[in-house]
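Archive entry. Fields below.
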Amino acid sequence: MKVGILGTATVGRTLAARLGQLGHDVMNGTRDPKATQARSDADMYGNPPFRIWSEDHPDIGLGSFAEAAAHGDIVINATAGGAYLEVVRLVGEGNLEGKVLLDVANPLDTSQGMPPPLLMSNTDSLAEQIQRLLPGARVVKSLNTVNAAVMVDPGRVGGGDHSVFLSGNDADAKATVADLLRSFGWTDIIDLGDITTARGPEMLLAVWLRLLGVLRTPMYNFKVVR
Amino acid sequence: MKVGILGTATVGRTLAARLGQLGHDVMNGTRDPKATQARSDADMYGNPPFRIWSEDHPDIGLGSFAEAAAHGDIVINATAGGAYLEVVRLVGEGNLEGKVLLDVANPLDTSQGMPPPLLMSNTDSLAEQIQRLLPGARVVKSLNTVNAAVMVDPGRVGGGDHSVFLSGNDADAKATVADLLRSFGWTDIIDLGDITTARGPEMLLAVWLRLLGVLRTPMYNFKVVR
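PREDICTED_STRUCTURE:
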């Protein structure tokens, strides 16, 4: 499958590497590909520049946000949640028309220290905002409740015995994403309903970020025990 | 131990019955004890009137909010979250001075249909509002993330293999509540930190309420798998 991934930071790279490994044809998208390629310093989290990462992942393409979106049969939003207005504008509505847009981002207000509060009110979500901006896209929210390493390899936490959520208006799009999740190793995939249900997993970040402070590792997840 | 429980609905009754069974001296508090005793119809959820319940629980006292608060060495807020301003006023600040106030309530806006959104913004919580109104009380948030039946008997879901959270500014108060939780059967009790961390478990309600719609039972809980 052709996959476009918006974003070249940890989440975008981790998803790209795993999808490439699974045999998909992947292109990461960024604001300015030349600037991304030219960067020679590690980022604020100590991740190597994209160019170095790229040498280890020669099969992963790099293009603009619009090029990555055009490339993908399915497109994944792995940009910082707060950047969505600019990302959507740069992608261009036409490049996502009719496509599955898997939104794994979190709308965090990183201007206010740790833990960051959500940018959205309790009666909205990033996924809904993106769906409203791109009515032709088939937005599915998922994977935002776990760290990048866990997204693509749930077995790294508790043998994979934990849960992930799906929200979206389009049943076929959710089925496509569920197949992708199963290919990563996910077994307990809970369909919460339409795109408004994304408020639940996004607001889960409030406890997720506080657990990060207590557990001092991002390698955890919630299991819905029932 | 003497326990005052604010509230006489399902959560207040379930906590009272279990605490009485464990040998505690329990008094439920209500706005108007005479009116509560006089009620002869089931409530909107089909629960029998307090008087009928009371016949099966003769050791549980009933008083005003102020009397129940004065009675308790520890006091539990099991009222509807949206009623907190009136409840705090009726309890009276003096009756909670220095006491542990375990807040199990959720600030849900029930005027807007299902699932109800939270009344608080993403940068506040019911527990913090109560702590600000009652600076002399030692507020601890816990148990709000599970159904009443699970609160007092976690073994009813998945053999009890799931998690509960603690938030509060006072370490001794949290230790007292943790002992109470262990007496109910809880084993994985996670101290998130000060009272501001209550935002996490309160915002968890957004996904909890949507899972209720999907699973069609309130008998579930989250396990923090790590």
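CURATOR_NOTE: Chain A touches chain B through 40 residues (CB under 8 Å).
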